TrEMBL record:
<protein>
    <recommendedName>
        <fullName>Integrase zinc-binding domain-containing protein</fullName>
    </recommendedName>
</protein>
<dbReference type="Pfam" id="PF17921">
    <property type="entry name" value="Integrase_H2C2"/>
</dbReference>
<feature type="domain" description="Integrase zinc-binding">
    <location>
        <begin position="93"/>
        <end position="149"/>
    </location>
</feature>
<dbReference type="InterPro" id="IPR052160">
    <property type="entry name" value="Gypsy_RT_Integrase-like"/>
</dbReference>
<dbReference type="InterPro" id="IPR041588">
    <property type="entry name" value="Integrase_H2C2"/>
</dbReference>
<dbReference type="GO" id="GO:0003676">
    <property type="term" value="F:nucleic acid binding"/>
</dbReference>
<dbReference type="InterPro" id="IPR036397">
    <property type="entry name" value="RNaseH_sf"/>
</dbReference>
């Protein structure tokens, strides 16, 4: 069963006539080569003939057998896989795309739906090169949709208080540098502080490699701490 709709009722506010659409198709570099050849011949042009045309025009060339004229206007005939139904999609010239998208997305009947619903509604009656990309761009740049959705904000977790009950239970670590080279060839300072007593320690180091820092901790009494808060980078794993 075929689904067909006159060009005159495709839009609600400013109905299009067949002559207007044909004129717009003939002025569009994407549809003009195909329409002119359809008006003058039923045979598909060779690739050599279509090669000099615009990239969009060349996109229509493989669908030559699915492109038909109705009242002098170029349509694409879409058929279901089982052949039980088909519909006629108007090949929309570029000059009419914005007007159509305002109708299918921005109007009262459009409802400012998302990309997939707007895409499905548009494909019911229309077809053009880069249809999906144009619909996605239109919906993404719609001011009304953007205002309704609001800004995307990431919820941050609240800071929590960590309580300690005894010395040597939890220790904070950080590293400072680079400093001027010392006589012992050290450039960095490993800073440690006990959470409970607030006792600080500073250990000089020649580099800030994880192995070097781990060895310093093992060789000192700080290895007895139960928990470490490391604040100087994810590459330090002890």
């Amino acid at each position: 069963m075929e689904t067909d709709m006159s060009v005159k009722v495709l839009t609600t506010e400013n109905p299009w006539s067949s002559s207007e659409i044909q004129k717009a198709q003939l002025e569009d570099p994407a549809t003009r080569p195909i329409l002119e050849r359809k008006l003058n011949s039923k045979d598909r042009p060779s690739w050599q003939e279509i090669a000099p045309e615009s990239p969009a025009a060349k996109q229509y060339w493989p669908f030559w057998d699915s492109l038909h004229l109705k009242h002098g206007v170029l349509y694409h005939k879409w058929e279901s896989e089982d052949g039980s139904s088909c519909r006629w999609q108007l090949i929309l010239p570029k000059s009419r795309i914005q007007e159509l998208l305002r109708e299918t997305h921005d109007s009262a009947s459009g409802g400012h739906f998302g990309v997939m619903k707007t895409l499905s509604k548009t494909r019911e009656l229309f077809y053009w090169d880069r249809l999906r990309a144009d619909v996605e761009k239109w919906c993404r740049e719609c001011h009304a949709c953007g205002a309704r959705k609001g800004p995307k904000t990431r919820t941050k977790g609240r800071l929590q208080r960590y309580n300690v009950g005894a010395p040597s239970e939890r220790m904070a670590l950080d590293i400072l540098g680079t400093f001027s080279l010392t006589k012992k060839v050290n450039r960095y300072v490993l800073v440690l502080m006990d959470y409970f007593t607030k006792w600080p320690e500073a250990i000089t180091n020649p580099d800030q490699e994880a192995l070097t820092l781990a060895e310093e901790l093992v060789l000192t009494d700080f290895a007895l701490w139960r928990t470490y808060d490391i604040t100087f980078g994810s590459k330090y794993k002890f």
